[in-house]
Amino acid sequence: MNADHGRSLAAGSGRFREDAASFRASLSMRLGERDLAFANPWAERAERRDWRVILLANPPVQMLLLAVAGFLATAAVVTLLGVIGPGIAMALLASPPAP
Question: Which of 13, 18, 45, 96 is the most exposed place for a label (fewest CB within 10 A)?
């Protein structure tokens, strides 16, 4: 009851309207800032300005990175077999046949 009485006194004095107006103004400003930061990836917020995050968030870039990783893995295996492969083949050919 005490809180209701305080509200009625504040409403009667006009302070309630001023507080509500300032609350609405600050809320709309905060919502506007959030909306602007969401719409603009280059906003002043530090996590929005990180170009690596922006670049890696795109699905075409993610697919390109997967393709490059697959190509590099294949090239590494082929190179490794090219270096070690002849030694493995010589060892297999030099071993005596199984009885």
Answer: 96
Sign, Cα dihedral of 21, 27, 30, 34: negative
* Residue 97 DSSP class: P
Are 44 and 81 part of one and the same domain? Answer: no
Summarize pLDDT for 60-84 with one digit per residue, the tens.
889 999 999 999 999 999 999 999 9
The answer to whether 19 touches 8, Cβ cutoff 8 Å, is no
What is the tally of structural domains in the chain? 2
Q: Are 50 and 57 in contact (CB under 8 A)?
A: no
- pTM exceeds 0.70 for this model: no
